[in-house]
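step=predict obj=Hormone-sensitive lipase isoform X1 n=822
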Amino acid sequence: MGFRLISRSLRIFTGKIKRMEYPDPPAKAGLCCPRECVEGSPPTYAMYEALKDSCQNNATYFQPDDSENGQRLYQGFMTLIDHIDTVWPLVDHVRKVAPLYDFDAKSPGNGYRSFVSVVDSCVLHGLKLSRQVCTGRDALLFRKGYFVKEVESCGQLLASLGTCLHHLQTLLSWAPPGELFPSEGHSPEELFSQADNINQYCFYGRCLGFQFLPSMRGILKGISICMAGFSEAYYSHGNLISSVWTGGQYLIDPEMRARRIVNISQSASIEFCKAFWFLAESEIMKRVPSLMSSTVAVNKVFTIAPEPLVVNTTEGKELTVLPPTVHIGLQGLNVRLISVNKRAGMVSEGTSSLPASDGILFHCHGGGFVAQSSKSHETYLRDWAAKLGMPILSVDYSLAPQAPFPRALEEVFYAYCWMINHFKEMGTTGKRIVFAGDSAGANLIAGCTLKILSAGLRPPDGLFMAYAPLLVSFIPSPARLLCLMDPILPFGFMMRCLKAYASPNAKGGKDDKRSNKELTSSNATTPVEGNGFLKVSPSQEGISEGPSSFEEVSPSDLAELQAHKSGSERRKSSDTTISAASLQSEHTATGITPTEDKSQQYVSDFLERYVFDSDTDSEGRRFPIVKPNKRDLSHREPESENSSTLVGETPLKQDLEHTDKKRIKSRINEAATGIMSAMSSRLAYITGSNNIRPTQEELAVRTNLDSLIARSPSDEFIFSVPKDPLLSPYWAEEQLLKKFPPVRILTVHLDPCLDDCVMFAKKLKGLGNEVGIDVLEGLPHGFLNFSLMAKEANEGSKLCIERIKQLLDLENHATTPENNHL
């Protein structure tokens, strides 16, 4: 009888919770939630009043409860009521003036609107939570302890948003109506000194992702857990077991996760950001596009040799374009060609009778100027190639801080000049050229367009930019404050990326001196990985002598040797060298001496003979693997066949003299050690933590990562950025901006770069340019990389395709029968 009563209470409780869920996006749900709104008042006002009434109801209920959790619930609901009374007049004022800052009436969107939407989402979250407590508080299994933490977290969230609203009031006073950037020289330090510090912890704990679409919340939570767990591995020198064990706690302890993420954002170096984003380049993630994205016939990476190019200007004159040399010297530039069909003359295996396409998409990937490559953006590029029916050329430009501004921009410009000389190899006639880029890539194509116009070359026929940072300086604006709560682009990450690219030597401290020394030593001898992402460190590249025996090869040595060998294997497997590019060899292009080349050959032969075999991946390309130990294969379990050989087996006769029992025991111990050592060394190799001995400052940072650090965000602004239009296209001269081709911008309401896009579009519109902007709801910065995971992100990618088609003007060009089905 008692069991049935408990079961019945549980069913009633869970049923009521399910009936309260809101399937709509936060902003829309916030507007349509309550129906009992007062006549003449906005719908959201009734939502705020409904939350106050629900909180008062719960507070009255728990006030007589003498238990600790009962009193905490009472205080929590009363605190929520106080915060609502404080927040409502502030958000109401911002709500009224926000439309004045839109691009136009058809495209509502700016940082002020975004914060209104965020506050409304918080109120909706609180209303849902309060009603859950109201309907379930009489149930037998009601969990007071759980709801205490939820209610207190919601109160902290609303209080922090109230502080942000105070900052917005200051920003409104700094700029005239319609201007999202201050008209005078107001600094971020001045802004944050106007009010109390913002509590960032509440944004990354129990309420993480509350402002985004429901389909994105699970993804963002997973990314945050991975970030916190990965930091354990990064700062423990690749100790995989401890990092997995501790990382699992972030799944069940939101407060611990929030503290870790905020402190990482405040304290971690740019190398940590690079290492974390490098996970998108892992072998598993590389296979995802070929398994889940659209099938393409051509997907090739090849290298453009660093040699002078001769191009024709629009006036018919010849212009010589020199290869980039700044920061890292002469380097071969990797580009990726993606096409759904093979076309005549295209760089591909085999021939095709399909004629060349009339158009081509010239693409630059995002990644904060410091990470990722065309491979990590292949998830949506494949789909774009299939839907557009034309080739895409994506540039794997060099990354900061090893290659800060203007290296990447010069490489993109150089790649464009090379492309207009080799349309045939790209499978296009070049009649229509459209630039496309997301995030940092969008900044680069805008800067590249300025260089093209200045040089008098043929400009592209259109620009498509997604969530673009067009003012690379932390000039305070409402949208910039969104990064204080962004799971994808936390405040500290954004500032370090900006500093690494635009002002890499700002502090001039020990870290900067060390990075400069590394940069100088690797200028001429550091080749680029096949995906254009990972720079092989001098310690990995400068191997002058081979090991004298197999015994001396440690697991970390093998990891380095495998990376070393992949540089030569890359060109043989996935890369394609074409005569039209007049390519040099990898060693000649990077300045490696014959002595080093001989050493590399020794290492390669050594690995071929003793360590590495080869296999074929899902795309038919060969890659190195560890050779199995045939002699002891029968004594091992299947799981350890490939793992135990990672530490190396000594081919000495004395092993044969041991008894079988001792040999098996030794092999088991060796296998266990090999598994952990290899996994740890590989992780340490990825993060780079085993290459450079940490400084005392870094050790102090690692020690303090788990302690609460209460400091103002203004501590991150101790550097300056040059006012260069090639770095920040927003500052470009009006004469050049008037020559811009048609522009389509797509961004999201919750993007820290939203105001950049809106103000740049306004500037172009004011000059008479053709420009359009789309602002999507509930999606994060970088949503294109999640187009295979979330329906709304996939729909956003489809909208990108439609805007690119408008720029290509495909309606006025005949399509081939082969592409009609696309």
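step=describe
Residues 144-174 form the longest helix (31 residues).
step=end
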